[in-house]
Fold:
Amino acid sequence: MTEDELQQQFFEMLMESQYWSPSQLVAYQREQLEQLLRHARANVPFYENRLDSVFRPGGGIDWDRWHEIPIVTRTDMRDHRDAMLARNRPRGHGDYSTIESSGSTGLPIKISTNRLMMLATAAIRWRAQRWHGVDWSKTYTARGGFDPDALYPDGKQTGIWGPPWDAAARAGRSFTISRRFTSEETLEFLSRTATAYYSSVPKNVHTLALEAERLGIFASLESIFAHGEHVGADDKAAFRRVFGAACLEHYSSKEGGHMAHPCPDGPGLHVSAENLFLEIVDAEGAPCPVGVEGRVVITPFVSTIQPLIRYDQGDIAAFAPPCSCGRVLPLLKSISGRSMAIFTHPDGRAAARMLPDSAREALDATMWQIAQVGPLDFEIRYVPRDTARLGDEHQAEAAFREIFFDDAAVKMIRLPRIETTAAGKFLEYVNEWRPSQT
Ligand SMILES: [Zn+2]
Structure:
C-alpha cells in the first residue's frame, strides 16, 4: 500500500469512526494504547519501568490503573531526550524528523516525530476542514518560519493542500510566506493570490486586521485557520469585521499533532480521539469531572520514535458533556489557556489562571501580556486601542489581585505592540522570573 492509500484509508475510517458508539471508540483507543505501551516498554529506556503499574503479572493491561502512570513534563523532555527515543521502531511507521519547540516557559525541547504520525494528523485536519465546508480547490496561505525561499513578493508555492485523492483538491494551490513579510506586504500578497484561507497565530492575524484598517488596505478572506494560541472573541470579531472571515480554530501542537477542532454543529471542540488519548487532570493527576478545568495530558497513538505517554501539554481546558451532534468524539468546552505560564508566590502557592476579558475591556486594550518578573512582582503590558485615552488600570489591577495573589506588586505598562517569541508565538502569560516551572 502506498502512503497516499494508507492515508486515504485512515481518512475514510475517520469519517465513519466519528459516529461509532462510545464502547467501539474505547475499544479502538485501548487497542492503540496497548500497542504503544508494549512498544515503549520494550524499546524506550525512559519507559522501561515507568509503565509497571498498568502491566499485570500475566502481561495483560490493567486499565483501572492508567492514572498511576507518571505524567511526562517538558523538563523530562529536555533532561531525558536520549532515553526517550526508541531503539527499535515498529515497521511501517516511516522515517522520522526532529523539530524544536520553544514553548512558553523558555524551555526549548526537541521532539522527534515519525512519518505515520504526520500522515495521520493530516487526515485529522482534513476531516475538520470537511466538517466546515472548506474548499480545497481554493488558495491557502500559511505564514511561518524564515525560509529564504518564501520571501516577498512571491512567497513559496507548496502545491496542493487538500487530500491528494480528492479531485477538487488537485486544483488547489498553497503558499508559505516568511515571517519577514510586513503587514502591508502580507495584505497585498493575500489579495494578489486570491487567498481564501489564511493560517497563522490568531494574535498575528488580529494585528494584521488592525493594520489593514489603519492602512486602508482591503483583503477578503473566507476563513482564518488559527493555531498555536487561544482565539479570543475579540480576535474572531476582528477577523469578521476586517476580512469578512470566519475562524476555524486548530488545536494542535508539535507534540500532539492535530488534537481538536470545533464542532460544525455547536459550541466546543471535538477531540481527535482516533489519533490520541486526551485527558484533563487536576494538580494530583486525577481526572477532572466534566466542566472542571485542568491540565491537558496527551498520549498520541502512533508517535513511536519518541513515545509520549501521559505528556503534560501545558494547556488548560475542560470537557463539555457529550455533543448533541451525534459524534462520539469527546468535546472540549474550551481551551482557555495555551501553554499557560505558572505564576508563583514566595509562600509556595502556584497559579495557572486567566484574567477575565472584562479586565482587558477595562483597559481598552487590543492585546495584553501578563508577566511575572520577580518573586511577587508582575507586569500587565498592554496595547491601548486609543493611545489618547487611558483605560481603567485600577480595575485591571484589582482583577489581577483577585485572580492571582492579593499582595502582588502589579505594574501597568502601555506599549505600541507586544513582541512575539523567537518562534513567532504570542504569549499572553509569561513567567520571566522562574522560567522552568513545567
Ligand atoms: Zn459535535
User: Anything to note?
Assistant: Residues 3-123+269-337 form a domain with the Rossmann fold fold (CATH 3.40.50.12780). Residues 266 and 324 are 8 Å apart (CA to CA).
